[in-house]
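Q: Hi! First time asking for a complex rather than a single chain. Here are the components, and I think there are two in total. Is that enough to go on?
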Amino acid sequence: MKLYCLSGHPTLPCNVLKFKSTTIMLDCGLDTTSVLNFLPLPLVHSPRLSKLPGWVSKDGTINLEKELKECAGRVFVDAQPEFCLPERELLDLSTIDVILISNYHCMMALPYITEHTGFTGTVYATEPTLQIGRLLMEELVNFMERVPKAQSATSWKNKEIQRMLPGPLKDAVDVWMWKRCYSMQEVNSALSKVQLVGYSQKVELFGAVQVSPLSSGYSLGSSNWIIQSHHEKVSYVSGSSLLTTHPQPMDQSSLKNSDVLILTGLTQMPTANPDGMLGEFCSNLAMTIRAGGNVLVPCYSSGVIYDLLECLYQFIESANLGTTPFYFISPIANSSLEFSQIFAEWLCHNKQTKVYLPEPPFPHAELIQTNKLKHYPSIHGDFSSEFRQPCVVFTGHPSLRFGDVVHFMELWGKSSLNTIIFTEPDFSYLDALAPYQPLAMKCVYCPIDTRLNFHQVSKLLKEVQPLHVVCPEQYTQPPLTQSHRSDLMLELQPPPMPYRRCSVLNLPFRRRYERIYILPECAVIVALT
Amino acid sequence: MPEIKVTPLGAGQDVGRSCILVSIGGKNIMLDCGMHMGYNDDRRFPDFSYITQNGRLTDFLDCLIISHFHLDHCGALPYMSEMVGYDGPIYMTHPTKAICPILLEDFRKITVDKKGETNFFTSQMIKDCMKKVIPLNLHQTVQVDDELEIKAYYAGHVLGAAMVHIKVGSESVVYTGDYNMTPDRHLGAAWIDKCRPDILISESTYATTIRDSKRCRERDFLKKVHESIERGGKVLIPVFALGRAQELCILLETFWERMNLKAPIYFSTGLTEKANHYYKLFITWTNQKIRKTFVQRNMFEFKHIKAFDRSYADNPGPMVVFATPGMLHAGQSLQIFKKWAGNEKNMVIMPGYCVQGTIGHKILNGQRKLEMEGRAQNGPLLDVKLQVEYMSFSAHADAKGIMQLIRMAEPRNMLLVHGEAVKMEFLKGKIEQEFSIDCYMPANGETTTVTTNPSVPVDISLNLLKREMALGGPLPDPKKPRTMHGTLIMKENSLKLVSSEQALKELGLNEHQLRFTCHVQLQDPHSDADTLHRIYTHLKSVLKGYTIQHLPDGTVIVESIVIKVSSSAEDSNTKVLLLSWSYQVIIEPLLKKSFLYPAVLANPPLKSDVISSFWVQTLLQFPDSNKHCGITES
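A: Yes, that's all I need. Here is the structure of the assembled complex.
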């Protein structure tokens, strides 16, 4: 049994498991941190961005004025942002039998895997994962196609030239593999290969292996997977949470007795307590509004935003923010809010009880009804005429490189009355802000990551007792910036097997038995003799 | 042989109070727990005393599964769990769990508050009963205990209706509840995978009907409503709050939109408004089309359909009113009916089945003069002048649909419930003819027993499997059966198939080798060594292509067979040949060369005897030899 590791990003994994002659891909996360190297895509012409000086090497020998622009000491690529794909050379993608998706954040590379690669298999995901995943892909495509940028930049990728560039461009890896965003047509084709599954549903693969999703407690429809035969069991744990937020609680007991447990998707903010961050978020928001400033919250259009809105629902009256308008701007804002209300089966017990009344499970329905929260597909159209300040705007993309958030950065960045509050943990906020420097607006960093922390995961592993643990190498050592924190790593006996991008691991498995069936007639003879 | 037993306590050759007991693999499961609309006495609920005469049911049942929220499938639930007593798990889908208590409460109010019955379950009992409910998700495999697992499939019919697959080991039963094999305006069609259950328990409401296309019925319905409106009449559609009501509302809503009609459509308030809300929140349980477009336009937010107020009934001009209940036996629908019955311009459309004794049943049977409850005895009869129409919109599978489901699931046996005996008989014949499987239709209290033939799971050692596979060449030929040798170990209720070496090791036994010996006497005047040499050359000529060795220690070895020669003590001319071989498969090819091979094939277990006689025969070609054979174990 082998594990091929196609992604090095611990929270956006893409691994392939070969087990009993089946080839199973576990997630296909898309590493979008590469977009931080690109200039933002403004929705309306930005004189500031267009006036940025082009980059010429100090000795003047390399002139990439057209491709690279300089801003506040950093160099950015002036082209449509590109993503870092899972490795495609390590094994033949057309041999993959099935892809198991654990949550909607971990499927964004799907079209790159299923289209134009000869892939003929099936993708398994839960219904909320498929529906919300589709929305997020639609949003991404929309962000890119709304502001087409004909210009492509490839000269800087030349190895000789890249070597001469200033960091972090110089250190970017596999830049030739970076790809532009897919099209809606590719998204539709990729998603047509998805087969829906429910929690604890047992799916037989070729009669050899049985796979089954379990609730992971992280997001709507998020799942961990059990891959087992009659005698062997592999657990795939990805993006799980033990906190009480909106999704159904995590199913831990079914992970017991695994031979191998593949562990990915732990919190990216092991030192930030989500509850504390939520408190800070609210107080900073209230402070800015009271001072007459605007609040910008760059966020994904599904997930933590539901919890933020729920928190605000309780908070606004007590903080006297009853008249402050809250805006949610995204091409999928309406769909995301509507979809969140129809997945009763996938919600935590409290929310399920509300549906039985029948009432909408999320209070944002009431915020919308009372006109406190308004949603718009973009800044164009109705929003521009109805928009009042001071206000709070939730909008994407959290990388600040595309989407409506770019416009608000340009609009509000120059005033110190305004605040930008980062809640998504996927991007370094300093890197995200780099092309907008110098900035006058206040920046608050409240990353909310509800995934398992090291303390929780060691407790979990003690309980479920897998024989072996496989995890990204990042989890086997303390973070670079906090090298003394030995509590911020996995310490296990036997030690976990680390992997990195392009690793191929031989999993320590001794298969000894196989299940067969004896015909009843034959069994009778055996019993008699 | 193991057996599965099925006993209907209700719905055996009958429609109403569905309640079926299944015993499978030592587990007892109750399917549905309904009430009968046609009775007001003890017969209203299933006869639970069949299970036990005294005491609670908890000890006798492993679980109870409710298929959907109609009262004939869940109406006896609080009575069963709280009054008779049952504390085990109750399974139902989320929408059923949400809607079921509301209908139960409604049922209780009508029975206790309006009819004044006592000794009926209370509101608190409904609540306590619902606390025992564990929600089921579609396709989720729920482990009731270590051995019993259940899995729900989509059944159409009404919001949240489910079919359920019950499995213990390799034995299984599927119970359909009520289902619909054609998608309608708001729900999808039932679906199940090829799960090959031992018994498929199916409803058979429309066992003999093959219904015309739904489109035709819809067109008919719309035409009738439209004509009535055009001539200024009022249309009353008695419905139950959930189910058909939503389907017909969608139908009328889209028709009104398309035809740009202005006449008002009303929906009697209360339960129904709430009902629409359930449909909005459980939209994932509706059909594909509604689910796809719900963000842009939620089909259950009606533009043309407004809440009804009782004063509207007297408004002039045309209108359409949906009112509860569906059989015109009480409540708002009956009140409106009384008001409108006298005008021949008006119309009442009955969209579903009506139980005997209800006004709905009477007018469908053509009765035109009705005695009304509450009016003075011998008072004037109600003159029914309005048009009465019946349109079957109830969503049950018809004969075609039932056959389709059998094709999907491929059951080994079929069992019909929830239908009329005569109709069942007809369908039973058809099923047995078309699928060549047994079909049962037990009456209430009658037990059907089906013998099952489950295959026996065995764990085979991977080493053994690989070794045996390798013997047959690089790839196994799936067309040819193969024998394999191994030892079956039965230990702690599990079976293992391992190589004999491993078996001996695991059981701590010593290995014994069987060696067969055989003495053959022959007359030969030569010395022992010469005799041996003569045998050696003889064998060489007879057995071409075999390894035959003459060893210096005075033995000849043919493959693994040892031959020794010694002189008899009494007579040096009588030589005694000792043949010795172990029990080995490898000897078989040797035999193939021989004229004795047909005998070997005919009698394979006697292989060692055959081998010895083969040798004897070969040696008999030697002049003057006498044989004397024996088999000894060494």
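A: Chain B touches chain A at residues 1, 94, 97-98, 135, 137-142, 151, 170, 274, 277-278, 280-284, 294-295, 453-463, 465, 488, 495-497 (CB under 8 Å). Let me know if you'd like any chain examined more closely.
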